[in-house]
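Reopening this one. Same input as before:
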Amino acid sequence: MKNRIPLFPHLSKIFVLGLLSPFVLGGFIAIDSSWGAEADKERWNQKYETGNYLFGRDPIQFLTDHVDLLSKGTALDLAMGEGRNGVFLATKGFQVTGVDISEAGFKKAQALASEKGVTLTTVVADLEQYTLPPNTFDLIICTYYLQRDLFPKIAMALKPGGMVLIETYTVDHLQYRPTFNRTFLLERNELLTLLPGLHVVRYQEVDTGQEAFASILAQKPAPATK
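Same output, byte for byte:
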């Protein structure tokens, strides 16, 4: 599970990228907000400075199972990490922007994208310091990152008819990682309550015998037609 805390040292880099300022978010899985953004960034840069992909190169199963249901167009991958999910979406024709605190993670994401023959837009930023632009994205995904006050902002950032896909660990995961900070684990059925105003399309809670997580696919209602 990944950690995230406020980051602003890279704002100058973000603006240099041009046209990306609307997407200056950021994210990863929160564990200890007292560490500070720089320590968090450095820790994840060090973790990603390995030849292996820490979380694999393949997208999560819940995404591949439901990709045909997703609203095509602009996609935002919060806490992109090494890019496994965002790259998969790009191969399916989405215009993908990924946000993360780690440049090293993005290097791997871009390498994976190049290998698959697709492109990504990547933004180094901190999610806790950014307000998501409203009515902007056709799809937002966020996997293995939990920041509870982010969920209403995600809902607002979707275009009408847009969809959100989220997956992260639940409290049942403590049986496999007893030292995990419970603050950053979903309670049972909690994910169903965190996306106000959205229609739940699919929901699951899974215990594989090695990890326990919940997944949701939800859609922002489109305006009623006269």
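So the earlier flakiness isn't reproducible anymore. For the record, Helices lie at 11-17, 37-48, 61-66, 84-91, 103-116, 151-157.
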